[in-house]
Known about the structure:
The complex is a heterotetramer of chains A (879), B (598), C (128) and D (171).
Chain A: E1 2-6, E2 9-13, H1 19-25, E3 49-54, E4 57-62, E5 73-75, H2 79-94, H3 110-117, E6 134-135, E7 141-144, H4 153-161, E8 168-170, E9 177-179, H5 193-197, E10 203-205, E11 218-223, E12 232-238, E13 241-246, H6 259-263, E14 278-281, E15 284-287, H7 290-308, E16 313-317, H8 323-337, E17 342-344, H9 349-361, E18 378-382, H10 386-389, H11 391-403, E19 407-412, E20 423-427, H12 433-446, E21 459-460, H13 462-468, H14 474-481, H15 485-497, E22 501-506, H16 513-528, E23 538-542, H17 548-553, E24 560-561, E25 565-566, H18 570-580, H19 592-601, E26 606-610, H20 614-617, H21 621-630, E27 633-638, E28 650-653, E29 662-665, E30 670-674, H22 686-696, H23 707-717, H24 726-729, E31 734-735, E32 759-760, E33 777-782, H25 796-801, E34 806-809, H26 811-817, E35 824-829, E36 834-841, E37 849-853, E38 872-878
Parallel strand pairs in A: 1-5, 16-17, 16-26, 18-19, 18-22, 19-20, 21-32, 22-23, 26-27, 27-28, 33-37, 34-36
Antiparallel strand pairs in A: 1-2, 3-4, 3-5, 6-7, 7-10, 8-9, 11-12, 12-13, 14-15, 14-28, 24-25, 29-30, 30-31, 33-38, 35-36, 35-38
Helix pairs in contact in A: 7-22, 8-22, 8-23, 9-16, 12-15, 12-16, 14-15, 19-21
Chain B: E1 9-14, H1 17-22, H2 24-37, E2 44-49, E3 61-64, E4 68-70, H3 78-87, E5 97-98, E6 105-106, H4 113-116, H5 134-139, H6 144-152, H7 155-165, H8 177-186, E7 193-198, H9 207-214, H10 216-230, E8 234-239, H11 244-259, E9 264-267, E10 272-280, H12 290-297, H13 311-314, E11 321-325, H14 326-330, H15 332-338, H16 340-344, E12 354-361, E13 367-372, H17 377-384, E14 394-399, E15 405-408, H18 418-423, E16 432-437, H19 442-456, H20 462-479, H21 487-501, H22 505-510, H23 512-530, H24 557-561, E17 567-568, E18 576-577, H25 587-591
Parallel strand pairs in B: 1-2, 7-8, 7-11, 8-10, 12-16
Antiparallel strand pairs in B: 1-3, 3-4, 5-6, 9-10, 12-13, 14-15, 14-16, 17-18
Helix pairs in contact in B: 2-3, 6-10, 6-15, 7-8, 7-10, 9-10, 9-11, 19-20, 19-23, 20-21, 21-23
Chain D: H1 2-14, H2 21-24, H3 27-34, H4 41-52, H5 57-67, H6 71-80, E1 92-97, H7 100-117, E2 131-136, E3 148-150, E4 153-155, H8 163-167
Parallel strand pairs in D: 1-2
Antiparallel strand pairs in D: 1-3, 3-4
Helix pairs in contact in D: 3-4, 3-5, 4-5
Amino acid sequence: MVTLTVDGVKVSVKKGSSILEAAQAAGVRIPTLCHDKRLIPYGACRLCIVEVTARGKTRTMPACFNPARDGMEIATSTPALNSSRRTQLMLLLRSHPLLCPSCDAAGDCELQNLVFEHQIPDLPFARQSRYFHLDNDSNFIRFNMNLCIRCGMCVRICEEVQGQSEISFINRGMNTEVSTDFMRPLDCEFCGQCADICPVGAISSKWLVGTGRRFELSHVKTTCSFCSLGCSLTLEEKDQQTVYVNSSHDGPNEGSLCVKGRYGWTYAYSDGRLETPLVKKNGVLTEASWEEALDAAANGFARIKKSHGAQAIGALGSARLTNEEGYVFNRFVKSVLGTANIDHGGGISHLSLTEGIAPVLGYPASTNSIREIRNARVILLIGADLTETHPIAKNEIIMATGRKRARVIVIDSIKTKLTERDGIFLKAPVGSESIVVFSMIKTIMDEGLFDKASIGNKAEGFEALLESLADYTPENVASKLGIDVNSIREAARIFAQAPTAMILLSEGLYRDSSGVENARAAADLAVITGHIGKESCGIMALGEKANSQGAVDMGLTPQLLPGFALLEDEASRKKFDSLWKTKLPATAGLNAREILAGAETGAIKALYVVAENPVDDYPDRLQVEKAFKEAEFVVVQDIFFSSTAKLADVVLPACSALEKNGTFTSAERRVQTLRPSTKEKLGKSDLELFELLAKRMGSAQFTYSSPEAVMAEISKCCDVYAGVSYDGLGANGIIWPCKDSGDSGASILCQGGFPTGKAKLAPAGPLNAPVAKDGQFVLVQGVSKFHSGSMSMWSSSLIQVCPEPLAEMCTADMNTLGVEEGNTIRLTSETGESVRLKVKWSRRSLPGEIIVPCHFPSLKLNSLVKWNEPLVKVKVEKA
Amino acid sequence: MCASPYYRMQLMMCAGTGCIASGSLDVKAALEKELEKRNLQDEVQIIMTGCNGFCAMGPLVVVYPDGIFYNQVKPEHAPLIVEEHVLKGRLVEKLLFKEEATKSRVPLMKDIDFFGLQRLIVLRNRGLIDAESIDEYIARDGYAGLAKCLNEMTPEQVIEEVKKSGLRGRGGGGFPTGLKWEECRRYDSFPKYTICNGDEGDPGAFMDRSVMEGDPHSVLEGMAISGYAIGAEQGYIYVRAEYPLAIQRLEKAIADARDYGLLGKNILDSGFNFDIGIAPGAGAFVCGESTALMYSIEGKRGMPRIKPPRSAEAGLWNQPTNLNNVETFANLNPIMLNGGDWFASIGTEGSKGTKVFALTGAINNVGLVEVPMGTSLKTLIFDIGGGIPKKRKFKAAQIGGPSGGCIPNGMEEVEIDYESLQGVGAMMGSGGVVVMDDMTCMVDTAKFFTNFSVDESCGKCTPCREGLKTMFDKLTDICEGRGQEGDVEFLIELGNHVNDTSHCGLGKSAANPVLSTIRYFRNEYDAHIRDKHCPALVCPDLIDFVVLEDKCKMCGACFKGCPSNAIVWEKKKVAWIDREKCTKCRTCIQNCKFAAIR
Amino acid sequence: MPKISIEDLKKIKEQQLNKMSVRAGHHRAKITVHMGTCGIAAGARDIMTLFRDKIAEKDISDIILTNSGCAGLCAKEPMITVELEGSAPVKYVTLDKAKAERVFDEHVMGGKVVEDYALAIGSETMAT
Amino acid sequence: MQERDALLKKKVESTVEVIPPEQLKALDEIIDKYAGTTQNLIPALKEAQEMFGYLPMEVQRKLSVGMNIPAPHIYGVVTFYSFFTITPRGRHTIRLCLGTACYVKGAKEMLEIIIRDVGINVGETSEDGRYTLEAVRCLGACGLAPVMMIGEDTHGNIHPPKTIGILDGYQ
């Protein structure tokens, strides 16, 4: 810590902090036009100069990058400094046209504010008329470089945070401007960070043009409903319509958003939204009243329960539900419907990761927080193409590698954008990632690089693990998987010897059983290297949906009750019996796959599907479709008329995340609030629907007045949520475990030890690596960064930038097949199902691999995929 | 007859860029042909050396053993030289250097003031060795300095020796080299780099080019010594794209040194590894700034970054990096061989050793000179430089490139060292000395330099990007007759603002030419603003050309040269200028031998 | 492995210095062959060649061999001047190859003036 | 402003047809030699410019893909350094030294003469494709001031009125 005085205020800040940060800590504002805490200080605007007196000498220097030192005395606004700032502003105005009346940024323009603040009455410098480029052709974003003040924040955030470099400074000196190459329209991630960070109106959101002045907009602070990173969103609204989305710089994501967060919200305004309930009459879904539809649903379930027993009902929920909805859904299914046949996300996805982590570490969750990634020295990515799935987490890696020179070890079947950073790429076929991790563990054990203090002391099962790894020598694994043996060794050494190392796992929907194995291997690796329970260490399991973690916390599985209680554990069951005033089934129910298989064979008669679209999203589309067709009674509750809804007997329109209250629990266990925007609410919230159905089915217990009341109950029965209440969530939520209302949460799990006493190292299974035959391609079901699943497909803006699925191939394979970009190809599975789509060249794809985004229902890609077969082998031909 | 022929005579042919441009390669070819004709090719050898420094008089040939200096040699002189001097031992009088003052011919190089008053450390090998021969460099104690370091000294001792020498960075900043190395050595992060800044961007400076072309190994050796001292195994030489010959010679030198194992692994069996790569620049003055230069090597736009961290901590690819310029590195071999104390005995209290200057502009002996620190400007310009041509008056000397300041007539007694120059508002810079005579308009000069800085500004920070342009616009107004009272005060205020708040060295000193010309030539500014007159007759909008009847010799030179037919002249009549047609291009002034037009 | 050692460095220096001796400011002896038109006609070039060969053959580095114009005694060509460091120059006249060789061996190398052919001692000097 | 925009687009598009794809194959050699790090970008661009005379869009795009460097980064670098050009050059490149020594000795007059008589300004190419004029900051031949280079030939000690006479030697 260093202690200094800023404008007479004494303040202590961390060593290495800038004078600007010290001033902020002291509550003193220093004007600046080129500084943002996410960026490396740049020092271009020269407005932040201050007078620094140290060791008897006074000097002026910029505050944004000069470090604060002990004993400095800082003056931030002497007459000389203010005069200098005025000159600086006048110089900026020299080439900044004063189009303020028609500028999109008026009222929210830093330059305007500072000019006003410094009362610059006229323009003493001859104005410079220059013409810089305008770009009206790009998606979402408009460039008017005539307004640019060359602060470089757009260029810097694009490179330093996003890792994109889609825009650059071009030309030099007076002619410097910001552009793509040859002024072409943008072709990038469309994160909109450049427009958001621009302090003036040079880069702006197209939707704001002529729409609303910034000061006319109302602000709704909520949480993003796409992926699991829990970014704060601020919906800027006018006339009950969102026109712009940004994010508070004080939020956990520090104001950064990805394309889905910033532009994806249009899904809520989609024409595909369900507004009126539908009931099947004479084989046709027909619009019905709420009364009619709810009665039909309740009666249908009651009928099946009565005639076939509760075991004949299966329920599929979703990680899109809020914690409160998930909790009530679980209660509804397990108590009112009376069955434990409940699952979500196909029973795979994020759930499988937590299932792998929990037995080893004691918690089915990530152990650390997202913002710690930037300070990790080594980052291990297991099957995690974060550029596509979790762009904001990718930003953390860009920052770690870019400015702190962290190294990245990537275990993946494809090259990702992150394999280009400094580090090691270990190519493992889909589903074989854990084999490489275990091989690293083997190397670490053989070379004695493990954390000797932890083994025995904090962890058990070391010998069993070692024994199970006999086959996992780097040589053996390297030859089986075709990896360089030294790369495995080097990766193991780098990871083990790093002062801090984090493991990042990310799962799409399709990676089934391998997810558990990957997470287990990762947990073992973290424990034996001692990279656990410390800052910038541990494991992050990044789910695909906004409430991936919450769905696990709320126990939306056949085995669990809320708060990780086991259904088959009598004490737990008793607790919930009395809380829910019911008698819970004593044994675990069927999982998603078993439910659908049951429906296919007739064992399951009724299906209740909430916010889930199994037909498009689950593996083996044909089986899933058949299951829904075979089932006697199907109720689908969703915001869209999805492929699954089309097969339903009753369709209940739900409202979107923009229209309801509730909480999501992010991948870093942060419980965050969802608040409704001012837009008109369509449908009813899932919570309301559960209550209405419960009431119709004779249960009088469902009398929650609001999500807040549900959370009050959750905090009573889930230990890790014990201290969570709506009052205490504040702007940025609380990270669980939160023991009581005074507890602000713990971002690092397993800090003093493990909840189960010692970590229980899990042994590896037999080494079994599936491979593709000659001439077969491996189908890698990728994720497009513009889509994340069901909601994004209904977002007009996301469809605008990514309208159709394209198969990514490498040059060599394209040449072999004789196809060029834009040609159509056909992929045929081993069972003869096929799909057709266009090809595009990609750097990500390696020879023998074809990457296809999995979120396009029109493609029916899931018809090629079988349950529990992570490695999908296909025949590829020119169509 | 004999394995290695013995040459009784060697003709040292200058092959610096200047002399090559003046045709020295043609002269060489002619001489070779002539020698062959007389069957002298085994007896007399022609050696291509680096720049001799006396560029104005090129092409140059120095004949050894006697050291006879021939200048302005043309190919047609070859038979004469061979016949008379080589064969018969008679000097070719007309090719000898002619002393401007005494009008006498001086045969011996060492007797010419231009050479005689210099003290050569950096340029110790100039004109004496074949620029492309590593053996000749070794013969002149080349690589002995490195050998001594590797063999007898620890890196700490090397740094101590450099500190003792008092050597300061010759690139302009004047930061003590030893301290820089010491700091870089302290950081415990590998790899480290040492970079040679050969991006000599100052117009009017070509000393680094001369060293890289004429004595490339001295740079390589210096870099290897610094690599040993700081713990770096890789060096880069950043060379301007405009210096193809330097790149070519450096490439050969690096290849030769690798061949001998003087670069590469385990140099001289010491266990020290060091190699050097060439990073070509691509034309950006700001890349002379250390952080911009490093970005340029990394393949980025050369825009200076913030410090801290300093390059010694996080430079090239964020690794500890030492950066010195060419001249600094060239000083290291003599320092290592003769000791720091020896070096420190030369020069002044604060500035040790010698400094190479490029004398250009309105001066007789345009060229490259090396003098001990503390030599007076007067000695430099009048004794070594031979004074101002055409008997014009010395008006000012601009030292330190476009960012330097002007030293006016009357202050030429100033001793040239880092502190004294700063005291008079100039700076050492890389050592360009541009001499201006009374035909130079100081407002126009300030405008020229400001324009240079505007063009070369990277555009990053506000004061440099916008402020300099504002100043340039104001200077243009003044030069074009739109000056107003208060403009000078405005320039001073804005100039100080730009200097105070700019980010890098370019911006911080970019206003110096304006500030220093205002300081010493305020009257010229006032004349432009108040009288709308340019006293030096340079600014076209503020002058009318007239023929001075009493001086006109009616030769018609002005008439013949006028591109716009504005001059009316008949034989034996005084010319006159048609103001309607005159474009004020100054061609007639240039053409008039009698100074009859003004 | 290093390609050259410090000893090699010294060796290269020695060898190369010989080749560059012409340019060295310092030398032990200087032979000037007078090569005016008359001298050349009388065979001065043969004598020059002889000296050159002898110097090359013995790999001598401290002797300077140079030429000058007519010495004014055309009748006594070929003519040379030998100047040892610290002693007055000696002029030899009407030489032939044999005589020249003797002068080289005895005077230049041995330091003893060959008085048989010497014209004068300390007559004129060349600028050095 | 829109006019300028259209002009820019036109300029960019006009370069599209200049280099046929088969000629672009020659770039593969440069890519193979330099791919790997951004460190090699400037040497690679230099060689590419030597090959094509300038660096049009296709060349930059191809280098971008081949060397895996973002195209905007390459464009930013190309436009930053005065050595690089994105428009075709004339048959003869005039490099007029505007260093201090040359300026003081008459380079300014030479520049004015070229602007007036050839009709091109710095950075421009004459309409007949004969000359491209570049101003350089010191060729390091100050002893010969004023100096200009035409192609590889250096002309020194130029008497400004004779500028056009020298240019006439290059057709």
